[in-house]
Write a structure and sequence with these properties.
By secondary structure, this protein is mainly alpha-helical. It is built from 7 helices and no strands. It has helices at 16-43, 46-72, 77-102, 110-115, 123-149, 154-174, 184-202.
């Protein structure tokens, strides 16, 4: 992982008002994604549910991972940190929407509550961490691409992240990691180590400045 330390002209847009506006956009996007995923989980079952959730979850994860880095035009540590800041602040926006609308109107199923020991509140601290982690490493990938190719590639970053995550998922199932299976939740969890692997791979051959 090798992004430049010094800011570049036309890159690393991290002034506070810009970051806050971007965080609101991302938080609204996250809220819409959770709403759609929640409605699908409640109304669809079987293979159709797995297929729809697979597409929706993958699209949502990729958006949260790469949009902040694209918005800050991350090329150095400055832009990468700005992307992480967008991700963290966006989770606060989602928390407000979740507490004001999703939880009172019963969006989540009993299965969701059972995971958290009967509470809908368990996932907010996890979201704060994951919501910062994904844009942080996503911005690293984009910065590494810029260092190597002169410009970031959303498609290239997405393919690399999905491929690395799929490998982690397969390994988890083959080595019988507790809870691992051929399902969407396992892929979602596998995306966390998969993204770290993808970030390391993206840095191979990047020019250090």
């Amino acid at each position: 992982m090798s992004a430049a330390v010094h800011a570049q002209s036309g890159a690393d847009h991290t002034d506070l008002p810009y970051v806050l506006r971007a965080a609101v956009k991302l938080g609204v996007l996250e809220s819409v994604a959770v709403l759609v995923i929640g409605l699908v989980s409640r109304s669809v079952e079987g293979v159709a549910e797995t297929a729809l959730l697979g597409v929706l979850v993958t699209a949502a994860i990729l958006a949260v991972t790469f949009l902040p880095g694209l918005w800050t035009r991350a090329a150095t540590i400055e832009g990468i940190a700005g992307a992480a800041g967008i991700g963290l602040t966006a989770t606060v926006v989602f928390l407000v929407v979740d507490v004001a609308a999703f939880q009172p109107f019963g969006l989540y199923t009993n299965r969701w509550r059972e995971i958290g020991g009967g509470s809908n509140w368990w996932y907010h601290p996890i979201l704060w961490m994951v919501g910062t982690y994904l844009p942080w490493l996503g911005a690293w990938i984009l910065a590494n691409q810029s260092a190597k190719n002169g410009a970031p590639s959303l498609a290239g970053g997405a393919v690399l992240a999905i491929a690395a995550s799929a490998v982690c998922m397969v390994l988890g199932v083959l080595f019988h990691v507790p809870g691992a299976g051929w399902n969407v939740p396992t892929f979602g969890v596998s995306f966390l180590p998969g993204l770290a692997v993808a970030t390391a791979v993206s840095g191979l051959g990047a020019r250090r400045k």
